[in-house]
Amino acid sequence: MTVISTYQPYFSPFGGFFEKAFHSDILVLMDTVQFPLGSTWLTRNRFKNDQGVLWIIIPVWKRGLGLQRICDVRICNEGRWAEKCLKALKTAYKNAPYFEDHVNFLQGIFFEPSERLIDLNVKIIRYLMEHMAVSSRLVLLSGLGIETKEPRLSVEVAKRIGANDFLAQTGAKKYLDSRLFQKEGIGLKFYSPRPVIYPQLWGEFLPNLSAFDMLFNCGPKAGNILRGRRVQGV
Length: 234
What we know:
Elements: E1 3-7, H1 15-22, E2 26-29, E3 44-49, E4 52-57, H2 81-93, H3 103-111, H4 117-131, E5 137-140, H5 153-161, E6 165-169, H6 178-183, E7 187-191, H7 211-218, H8 221-227
Parallel strand pairs: 1-2, 1-6, 2-5, 6-7
Antiparallel strand pairs: 3-4
């Protein structure tokens, strides 16, 4: 039995992203769908400092480019944004038990910048998967040669990979057609991720931060925290 799931290739995703991956054999990153024109988790995520939420944002080129696919979006590597981001993270997490274990990776991310956003985000996702012991295979939609859109897209992805079951969040019910999956003999399963509580710095717990927050604070136990939770609805 092969279970697949899909996600857009978010920047430094939250824990629920990897919880979904734990329950999938294959995770497909939807890198050929349209890049949003407004604010998006593809270019930013929440961390935590002594003031509360710390936003880390990756600048990208958008003006005058119209609609872009996620895989075509380029990072704006001008100015001092990378230096400022790294400094903010070092200040926020210098007292976190496992922060020093990951400083070299962060320095590489911010001081050897990728040209494309997808390359940066995939590098981060792979790193987080490795350090949380997520064994799911990562596949890019751009490598599957599928051009259709929802509600057909997820069905075609599952068919191309040869999946038995497609795992989706409950919010996806509004654009997934269960009849299409049933026609192809593919099981469609839903679940609702819930915020997991773990030790954090700086006072009151904040849910759904970047998974780096969990990794900096919990180290090798981060994966066990997510893996040990039961996914509802599956």
